[in-house]
Write a structure and sequence with these properties.
By secondary structure, the chain is α+β, with helices and mostly antiparallel strands. It has six helices and four strands.
Length: 134
């Protein structure tokens, strides 16, 4: 492992000019900076790394937001969106997911209301044990 760390040192120095702060332990690197610089660094690492035997494993790469760094150790859950007072706040994609979920629930309730005309007791059981419990 130590030899591998020494072997990739030229790579680390070569890509160190990309405007990010980087720390390395053998073949594991940590990078901090603005998102564009980090993305440029990542692309450069993917392009240059294979020449010296270093292959980036994208599934192992993670991005931490400033909120995650600031609230480390406080048990605060960092989310991209959440439900508040029967509505949703957050990023557009999480709002769209919530909206789609509401549409599906509404469609289920329409089917249930048609079923209730012939079997009210069963429809009520479906409502209380199914739709409302979610």
């Amino acid at each position: 492992m130590a030899m591998y760390g020494i072997a990739i040192l030229p790579l680390v120095k070569a890509i160190g000019k990309s405007g990010v702060t980087q720390k390395w332990y053998a073949d594991d690197g940590i990078v901090s900076g603005d998102l564009k610089s980090i993305k440029d660094h990542f692309d450069e690492l993917q392009d240059t790394g294979p020449d010296v035997g270093y292959f980036v494993n994208p599934p192992k790469c993670r991005h931490k937001t400033k909120a995650e760094i600031v609230f480390t150790g406080t048990n605060v859950e960092i989310v991209s969106g959440t439900r508040v007072l029967l509505s949703h706040i957050g990023y557009e994609n999480t709002c769209a997911e919530y909206r789609d979920q509401c549409v599906k629930t509404y469609a289920q309730l329409q089917k249930l209301s048609r079923f209730a005309k012939t079997s009210a007791q069963n429809a009520y059981a479906c409502l209380t044990n199914g739709v409302e419990s979610k």
